[in-house]
Amino acid sequence: MRVLVTGGAGYIGAHTSRLLEARGDYVLVVDDLVTGSRDRIPGIPVVEGNLANGSALQLETLMHEHRIDAVIHFAGQKQVAESVVNPAWYYEQNVGSVAQVLLAMERAGVTKLVFSSSAAVYGDASGAISEAAQTSPINPYGATKLVGEQLITACAAAWPLRAASLRYFNVGGAGTPELGDTQALNLIPICFEQIAAGLAPIVFGDDYDTSDGTCVRDYVHVSDVADAHLAMLDALPEQPGNTVLNIGTGIGTTVRTMVEAILAVSGSDLAVEVAGRRIGDPAAVVGVVDGIQDLTGWRARYSVSDIVESAWRSRQYFDGLSVN
Known about the structure:
Elements: E1 2-6, H1 11-22, E2 26-31, E3 46-48, H2 56-65, E4 70-73, H3 80-85, H4 87-108, E5 112-118, E6 127-129, H5 140-158, E7 162-168, E8 170-172, H6 187-196, E9 202-204, E10 216-217, E11 219-221, H7 222-234, E12 241-247, E13 253-254, H8 255-266, E14 273-275, E15 284-287, H9 290-296, H10 304-323
Parallel strand pairs: 1-2, 1-4, 2-3, 4-5, 5-7, 6-15, 7-12, 8-11, 9-14, 10-15
Antiparallel strand pairs: 10-13
């Protein structure tokens, strides 16, 4: 298969691009390289560019020139707080890029798409969350992901588009050290930053109705997430449509358990600091992942320990580069 991967030099994108190449697929990456890096995907051709800036014609040309069969679309912005401050820009970037990809695909006759969505579309829903749960985003980031899904669904009704939208839960870890998450936006890298600064990692709230009073979340290894994209690409239904699926483990882990594992793997003697609850934090959020398991046979293989240990190896790798 010949696959165009947008955002394919980023964190999840690079893992997926490498997996595609390893199994013998032809891979072309389009990435603005703001947070992505060519070093993550050596040997894979990269076209630099921002997809939101009226690039459908360029994308169409690339699809023709490289005889593209399918697209995996990762490119976009993903900082929740930033989306609250700059909502119009987030819509321009995230929804605009989806629109440009779809325009190019329709013109080039490419009918297979896997879209990087997010469990943020569920908003402050709690408990075991299936794809049938109400979608009610509570920030512009989540809203742009939901609009992207809706746009894909509309296109699948208008022309023979076979698509899947994958709603990730909490992604972490690294397949290899050089592919780790270098942005301190999620729990694990945030904790590493705190520890490196000699500051205690903070847990927000310890009075929830959970096993240790802290929030429960579904943490999934980035390599499992990348595997899910390939599994879904191979299993897209024959009929046009947008298949929406959760990507997670289906297993909940408390935030305190996760932070203590991070402290242990880093060898830190710091203690967890507890702060007050954050507004809008549900007690427990765990993905129901039967859908993709039934459709493709995919299931998460890696544990929370695997996630934390691989993230730490990656942290050490990048710290070594900065020292050298």
